Amino acid sequence: MAELSEIKKKLREIVGANPNLPITAIVNAVQDDHCSVQLASGLVLSDVKLKATITEGGDYFMLVPKVGSTILMMSLTGQLDNLTIIKVDEVEKISYKQNGLDFLIDSTDQKVMIKNENTGLYELFDLLTTLLKEFKVFTPVGPSGTALPPTVLKIEELTTKFKQILKAN
Question: Which residues of 62-75 are buried (b: 16+ CB within 10 A; e: fewer)?
């Protein structure tokens, strides 16, 4: 048994892992809710969790680190095959889901998405610009025509601007 304890101790020294202390690493790649990282010793570890628990669906808050950035991680069990990120220096995406509300900030395309189970902010702006383009009112001589060219240009500008910052669902 003493030999096994010594092996575990040496392994922890080699990889710089102490189950009671955070482990520093550099992010190599990100895939969905996992990433692979490289320790200071050069050891590459895969399947590091971005969330404490990985479940299908469900509610969560997740910070997605930028590739090449420094992170801190800890093991939930003291083993290297169960690591979870606890601190991210450079965030690429922030994803939040709670009770049907989805919120995403994505620095890769510099856009934001906000939606619930019924609609999203992108769809609301899309409906608004469509309505403004086709808006008619009743006049004494009948329904009015569609928007005049200067107004149509402003509506198109609004459409362009909201599509530059909002993600579609």
Answer: bbbbbeeeebebbb
- What is the Rg, in whole angstroms, of the alpha carbon atoms belonging to the chain? 25
User: Tens digits of per-residue pLDDT, 1-16?
Assistant: 677 777 777 777 777 6
- CATH code at 2-108: 2.40.50.230
What does the CA dihedral 93, 20, 52, 98 come to, rounded to 10 degrees?
A: -80
Give the integer Cα–Cα distance in Å for 165 and 29. 26
Here the contacts of 127-135 (C-beta below 8 Å, separation 24 or greater) are 129/155, 129/158, 129/159, 129/162, 132/158
Apex CA 117: angle with CA 111 and CA 123, to 5°? 45
Joined tokens for residue 154: 């402003």
Residues carrying CATH 2.40.50.230, the chain: 2-108
Pick from 64, 59, 51, 166: nearest CA to 115: 166
Look at phi and psi of residue 107 and say left if phi exceeds 0, alpha if psi is from -120 to 50, else beta. alpha
pTM of the model: 0.78
Q: What are phi and psi of 41, to 5 degrees?
A: -75, -10
